[in-house]
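Case study: Generic methyltransferase.
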Amino acid sequence: MPFTGNCRYLRAPLIIVVSGYPFKPLRGEILVAQSRRSRGWERISEQIHRGAPTSNISMKIDPIYIFRKTWATYQKVISHNLMFHREMLTAVKKLLESHPGPLNVLDLGCGDATHIGKMLNPGQVAEYCGCDLSPYALDVARKNLEPFGARVNLLCRDMVAVLREAPANHFDVVYSGYALHHLSLEEKQTFFTESRRTLRQNGQVILVDVMREEEQPRPAYLDSYNGAVAARWEALTTHERDQVQEHIRNCDFPETPTDLRMLAGKAGLTICRRLEKQTWHEAWCYSA
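Here is what the predicted structure looks like once written out:
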């Protein structure tokens, strides 16, 4: 989840990018401004993010329909607080309120940017860069981030690719909400290593995600989480619950908090603090 598609800063920013952004697009990837030029890629991307087997992908399916269908389900998950977005938002906002900025922020797997827009005030932000694999989510994000003005850059890019090309010592905050658990273990290590490289002194990685309980294997996690979806997510229709459960089985590869601390530690992010925990949903910050 999401299934559609990824203490410190009192110094002035070293770089403020207004008219451009120092990332170049990778071959085969697209900026949001060019997103509608590659309909085939969009169709595949949207179906993968909703958990559809790639062997069953039909190029005749309308990508806008797919986005609206899956995004509407996820909005119900948020509005009914089924994944504790309110608690996570409150915890992260409290952390960020103690650091007025101006901040350079990298948001990986930003979706429609609803929550980051509530965590930060426009006056806190010198530069915001968000990336997501769904160009349609980014269309919504652009509207949600209008109060931030020209300081916003949105990329229709893979989050690991964006991190690898991010400038060193540039960001005060690297944030990711409910996206990291979709990556492989190797990619998660890359996430922390590259985040450490791109952070300024005293910068932080802020992670909101699902995490397995300590010593809980993935099959047990899948059974437990899908059991909770079946029993407690009455706000969704049967079809929507089935959709969510299929996505979880196919796309969720969460680590334990200890595993994530080890990955962060290998990257030099040795100060780890839990901000919030609600069942398998947790918020953490990591710093050097």
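For the exam, be able to explain this: The first helix runs from residue 39 to 49.
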